[in-house]
Amino acid sequence: MKAAPSVLITGGAGGIGKATAACFAKEGYRVSLLDLNEAVHEAAQMLSTRAGQVQGRVVDVADETQLIAAARWHLSETAGKCDVLVNCAGISPKGQGGPFALPEITTAQWERVHRVNVTAPFILCRELIPVMAERGFGRVINVSSRAARTYVPASGLDYHTSKTALLGLTRALAGAYGRHGVTVNSVAPGRIATAMAQATRQDFLDETLRMIPAGRFGEPQEIGELILFLASEKAAYINGACIDANGGIYMT
């Protein structure tokens, strides 16, 4: 019997990561979830279905040693293969519900934001893309942000910069590994109804809602379904792309 396809998802305890895991589990994937929050175990138990098995592991993705161990754990649980990698974990520090001004951003904060939002995806790609390339198949989806596409007043300088760098990583890897059967794409969600959105000041949320032609915030499942599509054979010719999902607030 053919083994179930596997996916590793960071930031899997809530929001977009958890919704994405649910989408893959329903399709029969073997899902590995990584998150700093202990709730990742509860999420894994809740999302496991008859079709797809879900496992959780507590990991600080900003810690390289923990992250490498987690990648190797995933491979050990899936007979040495990883079909899909979803880099979803991300942080956006706020001060009283709004972004920190430039003079307030410490070097330590800047570096942690970049370790979580950019360096962690790089490390996991370094660990797993060669495994994918050796098998001649792989899908990597990096969760960026509307803040990587245009200026977003509610997002800080550190978040803007890190999510923009993630698009550069996406393009570079797509160019290098496309010929090996590995596609690398990104999605750039707009305002999504998650805990991160709830941590934003109400005036920012109200102004954003007024600007969205669709007249609402997005749902995590909508991003999960988009990620699932990019992981499918139907998206085999999409490589190096950034797919905007923002209700029309930013158009290119």
Description of the structure:
The chain has 252 residues and is α/β, with parallel strands linked by helices. The protein has a single domain, classed as Rossmann fold (3-Layer(aba) Sandwich). Helix content is 44%, strand content 15%. It is built from eight helices and seven strands. The protein has a seven-stranded parallel sheet, sandwiched between helices. Helix 1 packs across helix 8 and helix 4 packs parallel to helix 5. The protein is globular and about 50 Å long. The relative contact order is 0.15. The mean pLDDT is 95.
In DSSP terms (H or I, runs of 4 or more residues), the helix count works out at 8
The termini sit apart by 45 Å
Output the CATH class name.
Alpha Beta
Strand order of the largest sheet: 3-2-1-4-5-6-7
